[in-house]
Amino acid sequence: MKVFFSPFSPFVRKVLVSAAELGLDIEKLDCAAHPVARDKNIIESNPLGQVPTLFTDDGAELYDSRVICEYLDALAGGNKLIPASGEARWQRLMEQSLADGLLNAALLMRYEQVIRPDGLRFEPWQRGQHEKVVDVLDRLEAWSPSFGDRVDIGTISIACALGYLDLRFPEEPWRSRPGLAAFYERFSERDSMVRTEHPVTA
How far does CA 127 lie from the centroid of its chain? Predict the structure, then answer.
């Protein structure tokens, strides 16, 4: 398997952490993913021009990270990262959805800061996205007692979201939430997280 890769994408990291936890190998393909200067090489396979875009060994093209992670779980036999049914399935998928929503808001904040030209930035937009981040963090803190030592699509997604906040918004005081801070301290020491850690610059 191969995946279009950006070292700064938290969604790519979620896929790579999931693969590592499942014992699957994925070759990383360099690309120039960008929301404005879109990479034509990615667009040929994924019209959104976004990462991650996965190429399976049998020639299929898959996107986005949620679809890819479900595919990887099925490939590894299923019911490892994503429960097959029942209340646990819906809770894990909702944890993933909230973590992805936090990331979407954080990415929009990042784009507003570094891509939109000076004089065109809209502070209420930035504030609205940040409010989403804070509200999700508060909900995840309330849920954190249930995380325990779980390694699944929910906890992987949450850990990757928190790691992205550290990368792009180190001033965000999310560690003031003790449950999340304790969870991340444990989870970030996993080999899958260490090996996929974002670079510290750029």
Answer: 22
Contacts of 157 (CB under 8 A, 6+ apart): 14, 95, 96, 99, 100
Bridge partners for 4 per DSSP: 29, 53
3 phi/psi in degrees, rounded to 5: -140, 135
CA distance 4 to 17: 15
Listed residue (1, 82, 109, 8) closest to 51, CA to CA: 8
pLDDT tens digits, residue range 134-173?
999 999 999 999 999 999 999 999 999 999 999 999 999 9
CA–CA gap between residue 21 and residue 28 (Å, rounded): 17
Mean pLDDT check: name the lowest of 22-26, 30-34, 177-181: 30-34
Distances, alpha carbon 157 to alpha carbons 56, 81, 83, 112, in Å: 22, 11, 15, 23
Do the beta carbons of residue 129 and residue 106 sit within 8 Å? yes
Give this prediction's pTM.
0.96
| Both tokens assigned to 195 | 């090996």
